[in-house]
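Before relying on records like the one below, remember that each one covers exactly one chain. Contacts with other chains, cofactors or solvent are not represented anywhere in the record.
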Amino acid sequence: MSIERAFIKSGRNTIIHKEKKLDLVIVNGEAHPKIKVTANGLVPFKEGLPRNRREGKERYLEVVQVASADVFGEVKRLLFIQALDGREYKVDYSKIGTKLFVRIHQDSYL
């Protein structure tokens, strides 16, 4: 049985947000900051993670564990995220704490 997800993965490091009613929380290993993908773009995620899928649905969140086997299988240094605002964002985990950590890669990919 396959579970319907609020995102699809493309290639080796791209996540495409596809469902407006759920926000994605990108978790790329324990050492990296968590990112929330909303219909309006990317923001830092400072709250606690949902304990399970049901709690996530109640909070309108879906947690994306980048290193899990059903996503990419390893922690990534570079991620591309296509958000519902029509932009593709480049998240460079080697530049945490700088203005280059999250930036717009493509202004309109549609």
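The chain has a mean pLDDT of 91.
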